[in-house]
Write a structure and sequence with these properties.
This protein folds into 3 domains: about 140 residues, Rossmann fold (3-Layer(aba) Sandwich); about 60 residues, SH3 type barrels, CATH 2.30.30.280; about 80 residues, Beta Barrel (Elongation Factor Tu (Ef-tu), domain 3), CATH 2.40.30.10. About 45% of the residues are buried. A 6-stranded antiparallel beta barrel has the order 12-15-14-13-16-17. It has a 5-stranded parallel β-sheet with strand order 3-2-1-4-7, with helices on both faces. It has a 4-stranded mixed β-sheet with strand order 9-8-11-10, with no helix packed on it. The chain contains 7 helices and 17 strands. The longest helix is centred in the N-terminal third of the chain and has 20 residues. With about 375 residues, the chain is of the alpha/beta class.
Protein backbone atom coordinates (compact mmCIF):
# COMPACT_ATOMS: atom_id res chain seq x y z
CA UNK A 1 0.00 0.00 0.00
CA UNK A 2 1.21 3.48 -0.81
CA UNK A 3 0.05 4.73 2.58
CA UNK A 4 -0.09 2.60 5.69
CA UNK A 5 -3.70 2.25 6.83
CA UNK A 6 -4.82 1.49 10.35
CA UNK A 7 -7.13 -1.47 10.98
CA UNK A 8 -8.87 -2.57 14.16
CA UNK A 9 -8.89 -6.38 14.37
CA UNK A 10 -11.49 -8.18 16.50
CA UNK A 11 -9.52 -10.80 18.44
CA UNK A 12 -11.54 -13.65 19.96
CA UNK A 13 -8.46 -15.57 21.04
CA UNK A 14 -9.10 -18.22 18.38
CA UNK A 15 -7.14 -19.30 15.33
CA UNK A 16 -9.22 -17.51 12.70
CA UNK A 17 -9.04 -13.98 14.08
CA UNK A 18 -5.36 -14.48 14.96
CA UNK A 19 -4.49 -15.44 11.38
CA UNK A 20 -6.56 -12.50 10.13
CA UNK A 21 -4.44 -10.13 12.23
CA UNK A 22 -1.20 -11.75 11.04
CA UNK A 23 -2.23 -11.51 7.37
CA UNK A 24 -3.17 -7.85 7.67
CA UNK A 25 0.13 -6.98 9.31
CA UNK A 26 2.00 -8.89 6.59
CA UNK A 27 0.04 -6.93 3.96
CA UNK A 28 1.27 -3.66 5.42
CA UNK A 29 -1.63 -2.53 7.57
CA UNK A 30 -1.08 -0.96 10.97
CA UNK A 31 -3.06 -3.53 12.96
CA UNK A 32 -4.54 -2.99 16.41
CA UNK A 33 -6.03 -5.96 18.26
CA UNK A 34 -9.17 -5.67 20.35
CA UNK A 35 -10.95 -8.25 22.50
CA UNK A 36 -14.59 -7.84 23.55
CA UNK A 37 -15.53 -8.99 27.04
CA UNK A 38 -19.08 -10.16 26.55
CA UNK A 39 -19.74 -12.56 29.40
CA UNK A 40 -18.65 -13.56 32.90
CA UNK A 41 -14.87 -13.90 33.20
CA UNK A 42 -15.11 -15.68 36.53
CA UNK A 43 -13.07 -18.57 37.89
CA UNK A 44 -15.84 -20.92 36.70
CA UNK A 45 -14.92 -20.08 33.12
CA UNK A 46 -11.19 -20.66 33.49
CA UNK A 47 -11.48 -24.18 32.07
CA UNK A 48 -13.69 -23.19 29.18
CA UNK A 49 -11.88 -22.25 26.03
CA UNK A 50 -11.81 -22.80 22.29
CA UNK A 51 -12.34 -19.37 20.76
CA UNK A 52 -15.66 -18.75 22.44
CA UNK A 53 -14.73 -15.11 23.14
CA UNK A 54 -16.05 -15.39 26.69
CA UNK A 55 -13.47 -17.16 28.84
CA UNK A 56 -10.46 -15.81 30.67
CA UNK A 57 -8.28 -18.14 28.61
CA UNK A 58 -9.56 -16.71 25.34
CA UNK A 59 -8.83 -13.14 26.43
CA UNK A 60 -5.32 -14.15 27.47
CA UNK A 61 -4.77 -15.99 24.18
CA UNK A 62 -5.76 -12.87 22.23
CA UNK A 63 -3.27 -10.83 24.26
CA UNK A 64 -0.48 -13.38 23.64
CA UNK A 65 -1.13 -13.34 19.89
CA UNK A 66 -0.93 -9.55 19.80
CA UNK A 67 2.32 -9.62 21.75
CA UNK A 68 3.71 -12.18 19.30
CA UNK A 69 2.71 -10.02 16.33
CA UNK A 70 3.96 -6.90 18.12
CA UNK A 71 0.73 -5.00 17.72
CA UNK A 72 -1.24 -3.02 20.36
CA UNK A 73 -3.97 -4.81 22.28
CA UNK A 74 -7.10 -3.40 23.92
CA UNK A 75 -10.08 -4.87 25.75
CA UNK A 76 -13.67 -3.57 25.53
CA UNK A 77 -16.06 -4.34 28.36
CA UNK A 78 -19.37 -4.88 26.54
CA UNK A 79 -21.00 -7.15 29.12
CA UNK A 80 -23.86 -4.79 29.96
CA UNK A 81 -24.84 -4.34 26.32
CA UNK A 82 -24.44 -8.07 25.65
CA UNK A 83 -26.79 -8.81 28.54
CA UNK A 84 -29.39 -6.42 27.14
CA UNK A 85 -29.13 -7.22 23.42
CA UNK A 86 -28.35 -10.93 23.48
CA UNK A 87 -29.06 -12.60 26.84
CA UNK A 88 -32.43 -10.94 27.48
CA UNK A 89 -33.44 -11.61 23.89
CA UNK A 90 -32.34 -15.25 24.17
CA UNK A 91 -34.40 -15.92 27.31
CA UNK A 92 -37.46 -13.99 26.11
CA UNK A 93 -37.59 -15.84 22.78
CA UNK A 94 -37.56 -19.27 24.43
CA UNK A 95 -40.30 -18.20 26.85
CA UNK A 96 -42.40 -17.28 23.80
CA UNK A 97 -41.88 -20.78 22.34
CA UNK A 98 -39.53 -19.39 19.70
CA UNK A 99 -36.01 -20.64 18.96
CA UNK A 100 -33.50 -17.76 19.03
CA UNK A 101 -30.18 -17.41 17.26
CA UNK A 102 -27.90 -15.45 19.64
CA UNK A 103 -24.90 -15.56 17.30
CA UNK A 104 -26.77 -13.70 14.56
CA UNK A 105 -28.03 -11.16 17.08
CA UNK A 106 -24.57 -10.66 18.56
CA UNK A 107 -22.93 -10.09 15.18
CA UNK A 108 -25.63 -7.86 13.77
CA UNK A 109 -26.65 -5.83 16.82
CA UNK A 110 -23.58 -5.71 19.02
CA UNK A 111 -20.14 -6.56 17.71
CA UNK A 112 -19.85 -4.36 14.65
CA UNK A 113 -21.45 -1.39 16.40
CA UNK A 114 -18.90 -1.55 19.22
CA UNK A 115 -16.02 -2.21 16.86
CA UNK A 116 -16.81 0.76 14.65
CA UNK A 117 -17.12 3.04 17.64
CA UNK A 118 -13.74 1.92 18.94
CA UNK A 119 -12.26 2.16 15.44
CA UNK A 120 -13.32 5.80 15.31
CA UNK A 121 -11.81 6.43 18.74
CA UNK A 122 -8.50 4.93 17.58
CA UNK A 123 -8.66 6.61 14.16
CA UNK A 124 -8.80 3.29 12.29
CA UNK A 125 -10.01 3.29 8.69
CA UNK A 126 -10.97 -0.39 8.79
CA UNK A 127 -12.50 -3.03 11.04
CA UNK A 128 -11.39 -6.64 10.48
CA UNK A 129 -12.76 -9.93 11.75
CA UNK A 130 -11.99 -13.63 11.39
CA UNK A 131 -15.32 -14.42 9.72
CA UNK A 132 -15.47 -16.88 6.85
CA UNK A 133 -17.14 -14.57 4.34
CA UNK A 134 -16.03 -12.28 1.50
CA UNK A 135 -16.44 -8.52 1.36
CA UNK A 136 -16.60 -7.25 -2.23
CA UNK A 137 -16.56 -3.53 -3.04
CA UNK A 138 -18.09 -2.23 -6.27
CA UNK A 139 -16.74 1.30 -6.62
CA UNK A 140 -18.83 1.99 -9.71
CA UNK A 141 -22.02 1.82 -7.64
CA UNK A 142 -20.44 2.80 -4.31
CA UNK A 143 -21.79 -0.43 -2.84
CA UNK A 144 -20.26 -3.15 -0.69
CA UNK A 145 -21.50 -6.72 -1.05
CA UNK A 146 -21.11 -9.85 1.03
CA UNK A 147 -20.39 -13.25 -0.51
CA UNK A 148 -20.02 -16.78 0.78
CA UNK A 149 -16.59 -17.93 1.87
CA UNK A 150 -14.45 -20.20 -0.27
CA UNK A 151 -14.69 -22.87 2.43
CA UNK A 152 -18.39 -23.72 2.24
CA UNK A 153 -18.18 -25.92 5.34
CA UNK A 154 -17.07 -22.92 7.39
CA UNK A 155 -19.06 -20.17 5.63
CA UNK A 156 -20.47 -17.66 8.14
CA UNK A 157 -22.27 -15.26 5.81
CA UNK A 158 -25.63 -16.46 7.20
CA UNK A 159 -24.78 -14.80 10.53
CA UNK A 160 -24.02 -11.41 8.94
CA UNK A 161 -27.17 -10.56 7.00
CA UNK A 162 -27.99 -7.67 9.34
CA UNK A 163 -24.91 -5.59 8.52
CA UNK A 164 -25.56 -2.17 7.01
CA UNK A 165 -23.64 -0.47 4.21
CA UNK A 166 -21.78 1.89 6.61
CA UNK A 167 -20.51 -1.18 8.50
CA UNK A 168 -19.65 -3.30 5.46
CA UNK A 169 -17.95 -0.41 3.67
CA UNK A 170 -15.27 -0.39 6.39
CA UNK A 171 -15.08 -4.16 6.93
CA UNK A 172 -12.23 -6.52 6.09
CA UNK A 173 -12.53 -10.32 6.32
CA UNK A 174 -9.07 -11.56 5.37
CA UNK A 175 -9.67 -15.32 5.62
CA UNK A 176 -12.80 -15.45 3.46
CA UNK A 177 -10.80 -16.78 0.49
CA UNK A 178 -9.06 -19.49 2.51
CA UNK A 179 -9.89 -23.05 3.45
CA UNK A 180 -9.84 -23.81 7.17
CA UNK A 181 -6.99 -26.26 6.62
CA UNK A 182 -4.91 -23.46 5.09
CA UNK A 183 -5.76 -21.12 7.97
CA UNK A 184 -4.36 -23.75 10.35
CA UNK A 185 -1.19 -24.02 8.26
CA UNK A 186 -0.78 -20.25 8.23
CA UNK A 187 -1.15 -20.16 12.01
CA UNK A 188 1.77 -22.58 12.22
CA UNK A 189 3.76 -20.64 9.64
CA UNK A 190 3.30 -17.44 11.64
CA UNK A 191 4.19 -19.37 14.84
CA UNK A 192 1.03 -18.15 16.51
CA UNK A 193 0.59 -19.39 20.11
CA UNK A 194 -2.97 -20.55 19.29
CA UNK A 195 -2.04 -22.56 16.18
CA UNK A 196 -3.30 -25.84 17.68
CA UNK A 197 -6.27 -24.44 19.57
CA UNK A 198 -9.58 -26.22 18.96
CA UNK A 199 -12.59 -24.44 17.47
CA UNK A 200 -15.56 -23.65 19.67
CA UNK A 201 -18.79 -25.51 18.90
CA UNK A 202 -20.93 -24.00 21.66
CA UNK A 203 -23.00 -20.93 22.43
CA UNK A 204 -20.42 -18.92 24.33
CA UNK A 205 -22.53 -18.11 27.41
CA UNK A 206 -24.11 -21.55 27.93
CA UNK A 207 -22.17 -23.75 30.34
CA UNK A 208 -22.39 -27.46 31.12
CA UNK A 209 -25.94 -27.12 32.50
CA UNK A 210 -27.35 -26.37 29.06
CA UNK A 211 -29.75 -23.71 27.86
CA UNK A 212 -32.72 -25.02 29.87
CA UNK A 213 -30.92 -24.56 33.17
CA UNK A 214 -29.68 -21.17 31.95
CA UNK A 215 -33.26 -19.99 31.35
CA UNK A 216 -34.55 -21.45 34.62
CA UNK A 217 -31.94 -19.51 36.62
CA UNK A 218 -33.16 -16.26 35.07
CA UNK A 219 -36.92 -16.70 35.32
CA UNK A 220 -39.61 -17.60 37.83
CA UNK A 221 -42.18 -20.40 37.62
CA UNK A 222 -44.76 -17.81 36.57
CA UNK A 223 -43.06 -17.57 33.16
CA UNK A 224 -42.54 -21.33 32.79
CA UNK A 225 -46.07 -22.69 32.62
CA UNK A 226 -46.71 -26.41 32.36
CA UNK A 227 -49.33 -27.73 29.98
CA UNK A 228 -50.58 -30.59 27.82
CA UNK A 229 -48.83 -32.45 25.04
CA UNK A 230 -51.42 -32.96 22.32
CA UNK A 231 -51.97 -33.95 18.73
CA UNK A 232 -53.58 -31.50 16.34
CA UNK A 233 -57.04 -33.03 16.76
CA UNK A 234 -56.72 -32.58 20.53
CA UNK A 235 -55.72 -36.06 21.77
CA UNK A 236 -53.71 -35.58 24.97
CA UNK A 237 -50.54 -37.69 25.19
CA UNK A 238 -48.93 -36.29 28.31
CA UNK A 239 -47.79 -33.10 30.02
CA UNK A 240 -44.74 -30.87 29.81
CA UNK A 241 -43.15 -28.53 32.35
CA UNK A 242 -42.47 -25.59 30.03
CA UNK A 243 -42.60 -24.88 26.29
CA UNK A 244 -39.13 -23.30 26.45
CA UNK A 245 -37.69 -26.84 26.62
CA UNK A 246 -38.76 -27.67 23.07
CA UNK A 247 -38.20 -26.62 19.49
CA UNK A 248 -39.82 -27.46 16.18
CA UNK A 249 -38.60 -30.81 14.84
CA UNK A 250 -37.57 -32.14 18.26
CA UNK A 251 -38.20 -35.84 18.79
CA UNK A 252 -36.32 -36.82 21.94
CA UNK A 253 -37.38 -35.92 25.46
CA UNK A 254 -41.03 -35.28 24.68
CA UNK A 255 -42.20 -36.77 27.98
CA UNK A 256 -44.32 -39.67 26.80
CA UNK A 257 -43.31 -43.18 25.77
CA UNK A 258 -46.44 -44.66 24.21
CA UNK A 259 -45.31 -47.03 21.46
CA UNK A 260 -47.87 -45.88 18.91
CA UNK A 261 -46.54 -42.30 19.13
CA UNK A 262 -42.82 -43.04 19.11
CA UNK A 263 -42.37 -41.37 15.71
CA UNK A 264 -43.96 -38.07 16.75
CA UNK A 265 -42.12 -34.74 16.61
CA UNK A 266 -42.79 -31.25 17.92
CA UNK A 267 -44.74 -29.56 15.12
CA UNK A 268 -46.11 -26.47 16.88
CA UNK A 269 -47.18 -24.61 20.02
CA UNK A 270 -50.44 -23.19 21.39
CA UNK A 271 -49.40 -20.40 23.73
CA UNK A 272 -52.93 -19.67 24.96
CA UNK A 273 -53.33 -23.23 26.23
CA UNK A 274 -49.60 -23.65 26.91
CA UNK A 275 -49.86 -26.76 24.72
CA UNK A 276 -47.06 -28.62 22.98
CA UNK A 277 -48.38 -29.92 19.65
CA UNK A 278 -46.84 -33.11 18.29
CA UNK A 279 -47.40 -35.13 15.15
CA UNK A 280 -45.81 -37.33 12.47
CA UNK A 281 -42.76 -36.13 10.57
CA UNK A 282 -44.77 -35.31 7.45
CA UNK A 283 -46.43 -32.49 9.38
CA UNK A 284 -43.05 -30.76 9.77
CA UNK A 285 -42.90 -29.87 6.06
CA UNK A 286 -44.24 -26.42 5.14
CA UNK A 287 -43.93 -24.22 2.06
CA UNK A 288 -44.58 -20.64 3.19
CA UNK A 289 -43.45 -18.28 5.92
CA UNK A 290 -43.42 -14.62 6.83
CA UNK A 291 -40.12 -13.00 7.83
CA UNK A 292 -39.87 -9.64 9.59
CA UNK A 293 -37.17 -7.12 10.55
CA UNK A 294 -35.47 -7.77 7.23
CA UNK A 295 -32.26 -6.10 6.13
CA UNK A 296 -31.13 -5.85 2.51
CA UNK A 297 -27.41 -5.38 2.04
CA UNK A 298 -27.65 -3.84 -1.41
CA UNK A 299 -30.35 -2.52 -3.68
CA UNK A 300 -32.98 -5.22 -4.26
CA UNK A 301 -35.81 -5.08 -6.79
CA UNK A 302 -39.04 -6.61 -5.50
CA UNK A 303 -41.22 -5.38 -8.36
CA UNK A 304 -41.81 -8.89 -9.76
CA UNK A 305 -40.98 -10.83 -6.61
CA UNK A 306 -37.57 -12.43 -6.20
CA UNK A 307 -36.73 -15.95 -7.23
CA UNK A 308 -33.73 -16.68 -5.06
CA UNK A 309 -32.51 -19.25 -2.52
CA UNK A 310 -33.01 -19.13 1.22
CA UNK A 311 -31.41 -20.77 4.23
CA UNK A 312 -33.67 -21.19 7.29
CA UNK A 313 -30.89 -22.40 9.61
CA UNK A 314 -27.12 -22.06 9.51
CA UNK A 315 -26.68 -25.74 8.56
CA UNK A 316 -29.76 -25.90 6.35
CA UNK A 317 -29.42 -26.61 2.65
CA UNK A 318 -30.47 -23.56 0.64
CA UNK A 319 -33.82 -23.89 -1.08
CA UNK A 320 -35.32 -22.09 -4.08
CA UNK A 321 -38.05 -19.64 -3.13
CA UNK A 322 -39.99 -16.59 -4.21
CA UNK A 323 -39.75 -13.52 -1.98
CA UNK A 324 -42.48 -10.90 -2.06
CA UNK A 325 -42.24 -7.60 -0.19
CA UNK A 326 -45.15 -7.07 2.24
CA UNK A 327 -43.97 -3.78 3.73
CA UNK A 328 -40.70 -1.99 4.42
CA UNK A 329 -39.21 -4.78 6.54
CA UNK A 330 -41.42 -7.87 6.05
CA UNK A 331 -41.58 -10.44 3.27
CA UNK A 332 -43.61 -13.47 2.23
CA UNK A 333 -41.38 -16.43 1.38
CA UNK A 334 -42.82 -19.20 -0.82
CA UNK A 335 -40.61 -22.26 -1.28
CA UNK A 336 -40.65 -24.31 -4.47
CA UNK A 337 -40.49 -27.44 -2.29
CA UNK A 338 -41.75 -27.83 1.32
CA UNK A 339 -39.06 -27.32 3.95
CA UNK A 340 -38.58 -29.33 7.12
CA UNK A 341 -39.05 -27.72 10.54
CA UNK A 342 -39.45 -24.04 9.71
CA UNK A 343 -39.00 -22.47 13.14
CA UNK A 344 -40.24 -19.12 14.44
CA UNK A 345 -37.44 -17.06 15.92
CA UNK A 346 -34.73 -18.42 13.65
CA UNK A 347 -32.95 -16.28 11.09
CA UNK A 348 -33.50 -16.67 7.36
CA UNK A 349 -30.81 -15.57 4.89
CA UNK A 350 -31.35 -14.95 1.17
CA UNK A 351 -28.81 -15.69 -1.53
CA UNK A 352 -28.43 -15.17 -5.26
CA UNK A 353 -25.69 -17.56 -6.35
CA UNK A 354 -22.80 -16.80 -3.97
CA UNK A 355 -24.02 -13.36 -2.93
CA UNK A 356 -25.83 -12.74 0.36
CA UNK A 357 -28.72 -10.40 -0.44
CA UNK A 358 -29.92 -9.96 3.12
CA UNK A 359 -32.14 -11.70 5.61
CA UNK A 360 -34.63 -11.43 8.42
CA UNK A 361 -36.32 -13.30 11.26
CA UNK A 362 -38.91 -16.03 10.78
CA UNK A 363 -42.07 -14.71 12.36
CA UNK A 364 -44.70 -17.28 11.50
CA UNK A 365 -45.96 -19.80 8.98
CA UNK A 366 -48.66 -18.47 6.69
CA UNK A 367 -50.84 -21.30 8.06
CA UNK A 368 -49.71 -21.83 11.68
CA UNK A 369 -50.11 -25.25 13.28
CA UNK A 370 -53.18 -25.32 15.55
CA UNK A 371 -54.83 -27.80 17.86
CA UNK A 372 -58.50 -28.39 18.66
CA UNK A 373 -58.27 -27.84 22.39
CA UNK A 374 -59.22 -25.15 24.85
CA UNK A 375 -57.33 -24.06 27.94
CA UNK A 376 -60.35 -24.94 30.08
CA UNK A 377 -59.99 -28.64 29.26
CA UNK A 378 -56.65 -28.82 31.04
Amino acid sequence: MSERQRVLVAMSGGVDSSVAAALLKMQGYEAIGIHMQLWDHSAKNLKKSGGSCCSVIDAEDARRVCEHLEIPFYVINAREQFEADVIDYFVHEYLQARTPNPCVMCNNKLKFSYLLKKANDLKCEWVATGHYAKVVRVSEFQQTHLYKATDKQKDQSYFLFGLKQPQLSRALMPIGDLLKSNVRKLAQTFHLPVADKKDSQEICFIDEGGYKEFIEKRTTNHYRRSGPIVEQEGTMLGRHTGLYQFTIGQRKGLGFDREEYKDHYVIGFDLNASALIVGPEKDLYKSNLIATNCNWIGQTDFAQGLNIRAKIRSRHTEATCKVTLLNNDSVLVEFAQPQRAITAGQAIAFYQDEQLLGGGWIETLTEPVKTKITQARF
